[in-house]
Amino acid sequence: MEDYDLEARLKQIRDVIFSSIPPEARLTKVEFEGPNIALYCEKPQQLLDDESIIRNMAKQIKTRIIVRTDPSRRMLPQDAEKLIRKALGEEVGLENISFNEEEGEVIIMAKKYGSIGGPGSPLLKEIAQETGWRPIFVRAPPIKSATLKGILSLMSNEGTYRKDFLRDVGQSIHRPLIYRNNYVTVKALGGFQEVGRSSILVETASSKVLLDCGVKPGALNTLDEFPRLDTLGFDFQELDAVIISHAHLDHVGFLPFLFKYGYRGPVYMTRPTSELMALLQSDYMDVTEKGGKKPPYGVNDYKKALLHTIPLEYGEVVDISPDIKATLYNAGHILGSAITHLHVGEGEHNIVYTGDFKYADTRLFQRAETDFPRVETLIMESTYGAKNDLMVPREEAERQFIEAVRVTLEHGGSVLIPVLSVGRAQELMIIMADAFNKKLLPKTKVHMEGLLYETTALHMAHPESLSRQLRDSIYYDENPFLHENFDMHLRIEDRQKLATGEPCVIMAPAGMLTGGPALDYLKYMVEEEKNAIIFTSYQAEGTLGRKISKGATEIQLEDESGEEKAFKVRMKVIPIEGLSGHSDRRELIQFIERLRSHPKTIIVNHGEPRKIEDLSSYIRYRFHVDALGLEILDTLRVY
Ligand SMILES: [Zn+2]
To answer: Fewer CB within 10 A of the terminal residue: the chain, N end or C end?
Structure first.
């Protein structure tokens, strides 16, 4: 690898840009913007018309280039807004237009995308040319999301801060490379020999990158609850980047803690992940506080974390440090979930970290990606990694689920489904909407509690991240999330009435009964034989969900007055196994089989010790590669 310093790198960038940019574009400024380089031009028209000019430059300097109009050439916002409204017409269902002065962007929020024609469409180019503002299209979900609105206003209020931050990130990525890369290590900080608090440090001679930063629900003490960041041996400021695989709290819940203690660098993730994260994190703080505990960080730390996110598209290659490039790929697990590919140096070493993944098509998503150019070290989850963790086929699981719901309703009972707010809940909605349409279920209300309204709205805001079939049904106005039997407007006062009234279906968090409204419903329903509780997701050791699904006949719950009281479990307990967002044993193995490039080392994490042992020994036998499960605090040199 070639050594260089920042000045030399800047000179190289300038040389390439000045020699290829047409003088008519009137370049005024070249600036780092996060992992990208922004060119400010007085007349960017030609560059926007002929994309090959920018593409060639980007290829030579190996960095993505964004073209922006020089601020002096921008229309006044009120004039630009008039022009945009006229250009888009009525049929797009325009909801909001806002301007981000710092980045020269106009954010257009509208209901329909079709008539605009997607990014790079002639209409959007025309808007850019005429107004001098770069149009960013945001789809307004059919039901309003307070989260989306909150994020947009935070980002636009903090525009100046964000611009400075992105410039600093750019400079840090292109800083002098002091040591050529000669090693790569992986340190286990959380989520090894366990499910929860996922966190991994990847270190090279010049960079430190953190993969995930989660909490462990149901942990009994701090040493088990959070990743062992206390053992890093350096300040958080020294981290180059954090990459978040998906928005579940066991992968992101501890992120604001880094900001509480001084981290000010970038956090890479997909856009849906950042939106879900904003939502789940504020909920986590609420729930922790209500449970009488102090959250490990405050609202400001969580806002800081959000301000430092840099959204990436699947497949986009970005520099995240002087010697690491990162790319995110679809993981098929929940909305926005990603498999991370790290390319170290000039390709000396490649790491793939799966996060949680599903290697099978589901109602919500396409199966996880396996087409990575190269991978030497694979870090993979093993939630269902044991020999006997074979799930029934999806169609069969769906049939069992619908059958369980139908029988309970027909016998005059109600169904309680504890769910995480993100993932299974939306999958179950689609399955039920389909069953209602096919008359496989009697017409019944399905009540949804907690964050389900917001998380479902966010799914509808990102149809391009969903499976083809679901995306099309949302585009063509047969949106299953809006089925007439679904009721997403619940009030706390209604819980008892619903739980003890007419037969109905109730979906409520928490998925493992570790808290949340599901517990309230449970106490009203648990002692009635006609009712049923259906578990459709993983129940971690130590949780109430695990206890009940393993056949406990008596449980402790708070009654109305807040006193702990014993309740008899008389309702039917029905675990349904094939609907998980995780891969089962067969799918885990198939994923390895289908990888385009074959890893030399496979590190198995995110599973109970028995599953990790079982899966890694089978991988060794089957693929003749090194496969192992690290212990927390182990560091493995992989290159
Ligand atoms: Zn997950």
So the answer is: N
